[in-house]
Amino acid sequence: MSLPLDQLDLLGTPGDLLAGAPLQLPIESIIEDPDQPRHEFDPEGLAELAASIKERGVLQPVSVRRHPDQPDCWMLNFGARRLRASKLVGKFDIPAFVDKTADSYDQVIENEQREGLKPLELALFVQRRLAVGDTQAVIARRLGKSRQYVTMATALIDAPDWLISAYREGRCRGLNELYELRKLAGDHPQYVESWTADRDTITRDRVNALRADLADGSASARPGASALIQAVAERVAQRFEPEVPASAPEPKSTNSRRRALPKLRLLARLDGAEVVVDTQSAPPELGQVFVRPVGSPYAEAVEAARLVLTRLVAE
Known about the structure:
Blueprint: H1 5-8, E1 23-26, E2 30-32, H2 43-56, E3 62-66, E4 74-78, H3 80-88, E5 93-98, H4 104-114, H5 119-131, H6 136-143, H7 147-153, H8 161-168, H9 175-185, H10 189-197, H11 204-216, H12 227-240, H13 254-260, E6 264-270, E7 273-278, E8 288-293, E9 300-303, E10 307-314
Parallel strand pairs: 2-4, 3-5
Antiparallel strand pairs: 1-5, 3-4, 6-7, 6-10, 7-8, 8-9
């Protein structure tokens, strides 16, 4: 059943339309809501849905409301994937129900029930709701989620470039993992950034291991740091590693042995000034190291070739 827009109001409310029968609306008259939470569409998934629609038609009607600015058009509430797949196979119209009450929270719930929103989609939605004055408690209640879920959804709001890159490259897609990485980076920004850049796949187990290493102090220089600093770190460990007789029992914990070692500072000269070399964090580019002036907390990445290593100081 396809009706002109100016005749629809004569039929009453959506529930009165032919005892609940859907309308057949021209696809070209339906405009996607720019504020809808779904922004990422898997091309393969859309292709599969398009093949199904071509074979069987659209089995579940989409939901629409009147467009607020264009009287001859409809605004889509739910069904963006169905609408896009129908366009792919050249459909001219699509079954639809009119729902004047749907809002952005309903859109999130509908998308979550059909196919979970991606972390960035959730982050953008939460950011929009916070901007209009909703609290995290209100957002959680409206979505039927926990406060912790909404908190984790904020991980990608104004996220640093290295975390966004890990997400967009598909190396880290889990909401929990993204949140944990950003939280860990609060206290260990250089190390966590470098750790993330070095991994093709970031799983929950790997993030848990990273958290444990940072907690007990066993995180150290690793592949990705400059070759110079990596070699220095290994020599430092060898110099202060106690010699253990062959007959001695195995130590209970390698972590306890690490904690027993003295804390060392590697000093060098940079353009005539003495600096402290950071042997724990990988620099942004190969051939670089992080250094900071003696007595200063601020570090910068410099070319390793500019340094003249001078001495090790035990603290």
